[in-house]
Specification:
about 350 residues, alpha/beta, Rossmann fold, 2 domains, 5-stranded parallel beta sheet, 3-stranded parallel beta sheet, 10 strands, about 40% helix, globular
């Protein structure tokens, strides 16, 4: 991984605005609500109805290959967006991807991406071209709306205003602002305030619950020995092998928009010498990499500290705590996925 410096053309950024591999096959029917959390069942119902209401819209016109589209009449008044408010691990991304799949429109008329991927698209295409590219869509899903970046939040808020005016329906999940220590309790109000004039277009949808990735599961697996990690890396086709400090240093030299491309054709990530992350900038880069690995279902085999010990107590008590807990949750899940690799190679 530390030797990879991928170049990602703008057209790839557009083409990849679909649910990532981990969420390619999810549907509302595959979401398993926690029986003790009725808001989860209610979320499925509300989002199913929302998807059904997005039928019709842009239609192909003309003969031959259907490439030209005419926008439908203006949508009826009322919320044209939904915001999923909840802690990490309650299945917000699963539900957002399910909404994308359930919306009755051709794939090229729907877009799905993280907030970071959307800002990267604006950077690659320019603001006006991004508006033109997305204005013909029926639905734009934005995962992990980054409320902790005021500049980018205003940029995307302006973009969303233009898209709503063009008839695009919106759906989003987000993180809390720095200093907001509630487990998602303040997210909805912050989101609606930060997107300014779009507030009336969104219906906040609260989803309560605990992290499904660890619901009823044993404690996170213990790290492996350096010898085991190295052996698995050398005997697994497509596996990478990196010293954890070297990987963290490398991430600083690669734009986060390219972290997904860094994982192309990677079957497993093997890390030696995992230790506490030294500073917040490095920690936030690691969060992005963890998200991309999780999206692509790449198992992670590691030696050193367990993943629940890589962020300092100060970081876990600070304004970015939700990101760090999400990263711990996802890296722990990927560590579990790596268990069979170690077992198979003795």
């Amino acid at each position: 991984m530390s030797e990879r410096r991928p170049q990602v053309p703008a057209e790839r950024l557009v083409a990849e605005m679909v649910p990532p591999p981990r969420f390619d096959s999810v549907r509302f029917a595959t979401y398993v609500p926690d029986a003790s959390q009725p808001s989860q069942t209610e979320a499925v119902r509300v989002l199913s109805d929302f998807a059904s209401g997005l039928g019709g819209g842009a239609t192909a016109v003309g003969g031959g290959v259907k490439r030209w589209f005419r926008k439908a009449p203006a949508a009826p008044a009322g919320p044209r967006g939904v915001y999923l408010d909840g802690g990490y691990g309650v299945g917000k991304t699963h539900l957002l991807a399910s909404l994308w799949h359930a919306t009755p429109a051709a794939p090229q008329l729907k877009a799905f991406g993280t907030f970071v991927e959307l800002t990267n698209l604006v950077g690659a295409l320019g603001f006006q071209q991004t508006v033109a590219t997305l204005s013909g869509h029926r639905l734009l899903c934005i995962d992990e709306f980054e409320l902790d970046d005021p500049g980018d939040t205003v940029l995307v808020s302006t973009l969303l205003g233009r898209l709503v005016d063009a008839g695009v329906a919106l759906a989003a999940t987000s993180n809390t602002l720095p200093g907001k220590l509630g487990e998602g309790r303040f997210a909805a109000a912050d989101f609606l305030r930060e997107i300014q004039g779009l507030s009336a277009r969104f219906r906040p949808l609260r989803i309560d619950g605990e992290d499904y990735r660890h619901r009823g599961l044993p404690q996170a697996p213990a790290p492996f020995s350096t010898e085991t990690v190295t052996r698995v890396a050398h005997t697994t086709p497509g596996a990478t092998l990196d010293a954890f400090p070297a990987l963290l240093e490398h991430l600083a030299s690669v734009h986060p928009s390219r972290y997904g491309a860094m994982t192309d054709d990677v079957a497993a990530v093997c890390l030696t010498g995992v230790k506490e992350v030294p500073d917040q900038s490095t920690a936030l880069r690691l969060v992005v990499l963890a998200d991309r690995l999780y999206d692509r279902e790449v198992p992670v085999l590691a030696s050193g500290l367990p993943f629940d010990a890589i962020f300092s107590g100060e970081m876990l008590a600070g304004g970015y705590r939700k990101k760090y807990f999400r990263a711990i949750s996802r890296l722990t899940a990927l560590a579990r996925d790596a268990g069979p690799l170690a077992a198979a190679r003795g």
